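Progress report, Aim 2. The chain analyzed during this reporting quarter is listed below.
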Amino acid sequence: MDVRIGIQNVAREVVIESAETTEQVTQTVRDAISGSTGLVLSDSKGRQVIVPAGVIGYVEVGAEEPRRVGFAAQA
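Predicted structure tokens for the chain:
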């Protein structure tokens, strides 16, 4: 699933391909914002992205899609 994070005063957004569920990502974002801590998310390759909660403009959590396999799966 794609997670897009908009950061205040930064033109580009951070895009992460996450293996977590929508509920897990949403709860992690809520915890970070309510606790004024850093938002820590892991992507599907095991890398971590840390964003200070005070500069988060928005977080867009995409719908979960099953993996597509094969040549005919291109959209």
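The CA atoms of residues 2 and 17 lie 5 Å apart. The mean pLDDT is 87. These observations will guide the mutagenesis work planned for the next reporting period.
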